[in-house]
Amino acid sequence: MTDSRPLPLKEALAQACREIEQSIDRLLPPVSGDESLLIEAMRYAALNGGKRLRGFLVLETAALFGADHDAALRVAASVEFLHAYSLVHDDLPAMDDDDLRRGKPSTHKKFNEAFAILAGDALQTRAFEVLLEPATQADPTIRAHLALALAQASGAAGMVGGQVIDIRGEGRALPLEQVQRLHALKTGALIRYAAEAGAILGGAAEDDPRRLAIRAYGDDLGTAFQVADDVLDSTASTEELGKTAGKDEDASKSNYVSLLGIDGARAEARRLSTQARDALSSFGPRAETLRSLADYFVERRS
């Protein structure tokens, strides 16, 4: 008899990371010719380490909704392409101006600014291309819903909009409500999408209570991730983070730590993690890995 118990979170994350990176490698193979350096820069950005937490969310929620695992791997790779593009552009001198990403030179330092911009552009379009290819899902309506949800999460009403608030907030004391909105857009929207994408792939209707529960989980998880990230930016070393520590303080940015203090921010992260876990009550023991992930999001050290 096959053991149906879920893997411990550490093992599940490691297994998913391997599978997602294999999927990225297949969907973005090296090429020869004039475009080879662009593809090399894209692969460098997309395969340069990382925990694949967003991709892992896709796989876990897709399993809850009975979606095909190979299809879920394609969607997971797609969200990782989109996330990689955002990091490439975020590190540019015109944005956060960071020379390190995951302990290695940022894409613009490894190549140059022009190739970093173009690699980010191409990773973004590849994300949507993968979602819209028939190999991802035979039903064109589901493919369209996946692409629409990703566009909404990553555009002016999502991640990019949050980045605008972040840039405009440098050197200003933002109120807590504005910081919450900033990070709900900049970080939380893509994490919420990653959670909900599995439900979309599994054919769940927009008003399906199970999909709404997963969406609520993703909302709280995304905010908890950012609160914990602000704590790490203030307490962890550059070596632990794999990127330059203390960037928010250096740029005089308002964040959860500057507004709530380290202890207050930690308490808020734990509250949100508990709320995320509670959103999964209707799924019973099948969602235990997702509950463990909510704890991990606020306990991580990098």
TrEMBL record:
* CC cofactor: Mg(2+)
- Which CDD domains does the protein's record reference? Trans_IPPS_HT
Q: What highest taxon heads this organism's lineage?
A: Bacteria
Quick check: keyword Ribosomal protein in the entry?
no
Report the PROSITE patterns cross-referenced here: POLYPRENYL_SYNTHASE_1, POLYPRENYL_SYNTHASE_2
Which ranges does the record mark as transmembrane? none
Reply yes or no: does the keyword Acyltransferase apply. no
Spell out the Pfam families in the cross-references: polyprenyl_synt
Query: Could you tell me the keywords of this UniProt record?
Result: Isoprene biosynthesis, Magnesium, Metal-binding, Transferase
Q: Which family does this protein fall into?
A: Belongs to the FPP/GGPP synthase family.
Per its record, how is this protein called by name? Geranylgeranyl pyrophosphate synthase
Source organism phylogeny: Bacteria, Pseudomonadati, Pseudomonadota, Alphaproteobacteria, Acetobacterales
